[in-house]
Amino acid sequence: MRRLVIAIDCDDVLVATTPFFIDAYNKQYGTKVTLADAHGVDETVWAAPQDVVNERIAKTMATKEYAELGPTKEEVDILTELSKYHELHMVTARRPEEEALTQNMLDRDLPGVFTSMEFVGWTGSKGDVCKRIGADILIDDNARHLHGAIQQGLPKNGAILFGAYDWNSASSTHEHLTHCTTWSAVKRRVDEIASSEV
Ligand SMILES: [Mg+2]
Questions:
Q1: pLDDT above 90 coverage of the chain, percent
Q2: Domain containing 76 — which CATH number?
Q3: CA 133 to ligand 1 center in whole angstroms
Q4: What is the 3-state secondary structure (H, E, C) of 101-157?
């Protein structure tokens, strides 16, 4: 079995971030934002101008509940198992100011599982990071990052699109992306790649 370098996104892959924010937002402000709206174009569902929405999101990010957000038991089990055979890196578009909070989450829930944590920021390139660490696999819910990484040399069989989300359903049939909607499907795919020749 080959030892693989695996880059793993944080939000909506390792942690159910968007459902958390929508739930918190609706409870706090009496709105009815749905998961389908989350990354959509209709901004009226947030019932406030963009700068106010941003402020509200920043407020939610400062809560204890957000700090307590972490992976499920199934994810912890699978990632712990994968880390025995492979090199795992977290590659996230979170901003550097969230580094301490994210590091705390990993120390608390997945100690020793990740070799490094890479912060690319909202506009940064995950492809650059994948190239630098020599990633064989990138697991991400955002097809843009996977296409970018393929362009920079990520093996095509290693581009795993994670989750059944409205914002990625249109990309799920793209020929170079393997769509995995659960972590057990991710585990099977990683095992397949690890036991293949290339
Ligand atoms: Mg994500």
A1: 80
A2: 3.40.50.1000
A3: 19
A4: HHHHHHHHHCCCCEEEEEECCCCCCHHHHHHHHCCCEEEECCHHHHHHHHHCCCCHH
Query: In the prediction, which pLDDT does 198 show?
Result: 61
Task: Mark whether 63 and 82 lie in a shared domain.
Answer: no
- Whole-number Å distance, alpha carbon 163 to ligand 1 midpoint, is 10
Same domain, 129 and 189: yes
Phi, psi for 25 (deg, rounded to 5): -65, -50
Tell how far the Cα of 171 is from the centroid of ligand 1, in angstroms. 14
Q: Are residues 53 and 76 in the same domain?
A: no
Q: 42 by DSSP, 3-state: which? A: coil
Ligand 1 center from residue 92 Cα (angstroms)? 7
Number of domains in the chain: 2
The H or E element spanning position 159 is strand 159-162
- pTM exceeds 0.90 for this model: yes
Domain range for 26 is 17-68
Ligand 1 centroid–CA 13 distance in Å is 6
Do residues 23 and 119 both lie within one domain?
no
54 CA distance to ligand 1 middle (Å):
18
